[in-house]
Write a structure and sequence with these properties.
By secondary structure, the chain is an all-alpha fold. Helix content is 66%, strand content 0%. Helix 2 runs antiparallel to helix 3, helix 3 packs antiparallel against helix 4 and helix 16 packs antiparallel against helix 17.
Length: 378
Amino acid sequence: MDLAVMTAPHIRRSPLRTALLASALLCVSAGALAQVGRYDPAQVREHHKKADKAAPSDGQSDQKYPEATRVAPKAEATKAGGKALNEIIALYQAKQYPQAIGQGESFASSTNNAYEKSFAYQLAATAAVDAGDRARALADYRKAVDANGLGNNEHYQIMYNLAVLQLQEGQPADALATVDRLMSETKASTPEFVALKANVLSLLKRPQEAIALYEQQLAQHPDDPKLLINAAAAYQAANQQDKATALLARAQAAGSLSDASQYRALYVGYLNAGKTKEALAVIDAGLAKGILQPSPELAQAYSVMAQNAYANDDTATAIAMYQRAAAISSDGEAMLNLARVYYNEGHMSEARKAAAEALQKGVKNVTEAKRIASQKGK
C-alpha cells in the first residue's frame, strides 16, 4: 500500500489505513494424522497359532474391542490353505511385493474359506502399501473386509486401514462412511479413530464438527504437533483465526512447525492481529532454520509491518522493514515506499537515492518516483 507523500517534508502525516495480508490457509493433510497400520501379517499369523494352543478358538481372547457388535467368526485355514498363506507370507517378508500381491490376490479369489480369503487379501493389500500402490491396497483391503473372515482385532484394523487409504486417495466421503461404521460396530472412540474422523470432516469442509473432535483430542494430547496443526487448520476454516494462531504458536514453541506454509500461517495471523513483533520473530526463526526463504510473500509481510509501524509513528521500524522488503522484492514498489518515508521525514538525500533505485527496478507510479528523485536538499 502506498504512503501519502506530503508537499513539504515536515507536515504532519495523515492517518494510514492498516493493511492486512491475505489469510494464509493451512491445508489438512490426508496423511498427517492417519497412517495405515504397520503390522507384519506374519506376526498376526503367529498370534493365531499361539492363541489356538493356549485357549479355545472362540475368537474373543485378547480382544481390543470387547463391546463390538460383530460376532467374530471361528473359521480357520485349511491345511492346504495354511500352506498357501505361508508361501505368501514368505514372499512378503522377502520384500517380493509384486509376487506377494499377485499370489495373494490369486489365492483369495480361488478359495471359498472366509478366513483364507480375508487373510490373503490383507496380505496382498499390505504388500501393495509397501510397494507404494495405494489404489490396489485400497481395493484389497475392501475385499478383506467384505470377506468377513478374520477375528475382530484384525478385521477392524483392516477397516481402519481402508478408511485411511480412502482418505489418502481423495475419497473423504467414503472414508467418513467407513470410520463411522468402524466406530459404530466397535463402540470405541480410540484416539486414532477420533483423529481420523476429524481429519476427514476437515477435508469435507465441516470445520465445526471437526473442531469438536480436535478439542476432544487436544484435551488428551495437548502437545501432539500434527494434531495442533490440523486443529489450527480447522479453526481457520471456521474463521476462528485467533484460536488457529494460538495453536500454531504452541506448535512453534514445541519446535513442530516444519514447512513454510505453517510459518506463514502463523506470522500472517500475528500481523492481522496487530502483533508485529511476534510476526517478525516468527519470520526470523523461519529464516534461521532455512524453512522460510526470501520471496514476494515475505516482502509483502515486511511492507505490511512497515506500513503499520509508520502509522504508529515508529519511523525507524518502518524504514528497517521497507529496507528488508525492498531487498527481496521483484519490483521497486517497496523501495518507492521507502523513498516516501524519507521524503516525509525530510531526508532528501536518502529519498532521492531510494526513488532512483525504485525506478531502476520498476514502479507503477513513475511520475511520483521521478519527482522524489529530482528533489533538492539534503
